[in-house]
Amino acid sequence: MLRIEGRSRLSGQVQISGAKNSALAIMAGVVLCSQTCRLRNVPNLVDVNRMGQILESLGIQLQRHGSTLELDATHITQGQAPYEVVSQLRASFFIIGPLLARLGTAQVPLPGGCAIGARPVDLHVRGLQAMGAHVQIEHGVVNAYAPQGKLKGAKIYLDYPSVGATETLMMAATLAEGETCIENAAQEPEVIDLANFCRSMGARIKGAGTKTIWIEGVSQLHSTDYEVIPDRIEAGTFLVAAAITQSELLLNNVIASHLIPLIAKLEETGAKVIKEGERQLRLLPAERIVATDIETLPYPGFPTDMQAQFMALLTLAEGNSMVTETVFENRLRHVAELQRMGANIRVKGNIAIVKGVPLLSGAPVLATDLRASAALVLAGLAAEGTTIIQDLQHLDRGYEQLEVKLQHLGARLTRQEKVS
Ligand SMILES: CC(=O)N[C@H]1[C@@H](OP(=O)(O)OP(=O)(O)OC[C@H]2O[C@@H](n3ccc(=O)[nH]c3=O)[C@H](O)[C@@H]2O)O[C@H](CO)[C@@H](O)[C@@H]1O
Ligand SMILES: C=C(OP(=O)(O)O)C(=O)O
Fold first, then answer.
1. InterPro entries given for it (predicted)?
2. What distance in angstroms lies between residue 162's CA and the mean position of ligand 1's atoms?
């Protein structure tokens, strides 16, 4: 559990790690390469380690030196991913695309990840079927094979710009026969990062970062040395940590253009976000936090992965804010925990109305998912008294040394073994 003594100001600077969601997709992409890959700026996270275990189970050799991963995918010995690990993270499913493209066969259990909605994989499956794959879901496992061992380029329209489906299909198409066009593709920076990684191995991809992505299949991809982009959600979490504790903070290793919706909304609450050096952002806090509305949307809209943290900030704003979650159908579970801390929030469907209060009070709370955990940490930093957060396994999936980074900034928080 995490014990937080609230109401301390933060100060100084913090280094943002590599992006979890980029690193995980790119690790899946390593399956496409029949040589070795070096990945830099890979965060040391439970999810990344789990993805590493999946790759190792397929025969890929993996070594970590600090934030660099060396992966040798010359020999893939099997196309079957282990249930025990796949069931724990969403991104593990994305290997179905590269496995099918490389081996012509894949058996991947239905994935896990944060419990924030039903999270089906129908868009991934339909796209692979459009590329000629035969797919059957039996006993919780997606079995897919490509006749004659090769996927075929296709025109694919996604009903929703799913990040994972765009990534799965883009990877699959890099080694398919002919051209693939993905319409209504996700435009997230992590999709662009994955495309850049694939291009660095010789893939032919155009349009990543727009709604239409073209991929011309090649017969083989080669070795690469690639640096993962900084984590925009970790950066956003630290910006909100500064805003909620009314502290000035400098963030290093951030790409400001990936944070446009968040910065705009932070400025509506009265904070100032200033671009300093290359890849640096400084937050100057508001004297009083002003209420504002947010609605989560696919990129470049406000990120669903920042909704919980931003809601924590709005609990202390002057006035009423409306938070609308449109991406996932069950991503407001942090509301009940914030209420324990004195927040005044009413929920109707996918909308939360937050009536700002002058002060939160520390309380024992339960972290229900990754970003909900981060929101509770932020609320605990601002609250009066002690907050105790249970169930840290979610936090460790997605934040590299969050409490150590916060301690360096002056926060008073410690991790403790659970006392039974
Ligand atoms: C590992 C990773 O990168 N995770 C991110 C990724 O998740 P993930 O790739 O799972 O998110 P998607 O963009 O696919 O999901 C968005 C919506 O589409 C629905 N959907 C998705 C696929 C599908 O086949 N059918 C379907 O209906 C989902 O249930 C959800 O309601 O993007 C999300 C949206 O930005 C982020 O919150 C996650 O942090
Ligand atoms: C929802 C998230 O992760 P995952 O898709 O891995 O569950 C997240 O990073 O906020």
1. Enolpyruvate_Tfrase_dom, Enolpyruvate_Tfrase_sf, MurA_subfamily, RNA3'P_cycl/enolpyr_Trfase_a/b, UDP_GlcNAc_COvinyl_MurA
2. 5
**Protein residue with least CA distance to atom 3, ligand 1:** 21
- The answer to whether 3 is a known ligand-binding residue is no
Among left, alpha and beta (phi > 0; psi -120 to 50; other), residue 386 is: beta
3-state secondary structure of 19: coil
CATH value at residue 139: 3.65.10.10
End position of a domain, from candidates 201, 227, 253: 227
237 with 216, same domain: the answer is no
Is residue 94 one of the residues assigned to a domain?
A: yes
Task: Output the pTM of the full model.
Answer: 0.97
Average pLDDT on 377-398 reads 95
Inside any domain, residue 420: no
pLDDT in tens, 289-345: 999 999 999 999 999 999 999 999 999 999 999 999 999 999 999 999 999 999 999
Amino acid sitting at position 185: A
Interval between CA 271 and ligand 2 midpoint (Å) = 27
Place of tokens 């991963």: 69
- CB of 305 sitting under 6 A from ligand 2: yes
For this complex, say whether ipTM is above 0.90: yes
Q: Is 241 in the pocket of ligand 1 (CB under 6 A)?
A: no
- Ligand-binding site membership of 21 (annotated): yes
Per-residue pLDDT tens digits for 57-94? 999 999 999 999 999 999 998 888 888 888 889 999 99
Q: Which residue out of 33, 37, 114, 198 is catalytically annotated?
A: 114
- Tell how far CA 260 is from the center of its chain: 17
Contact 309, 378 (CB under 8 A): yes
Residues 160 and 13 in one domain: no
At 282, the amino acid letter reads R
Whether ligand 1 lies within 6 angstroms of the CB of 163 is answered as yes
Total number of domains in the chain: 2
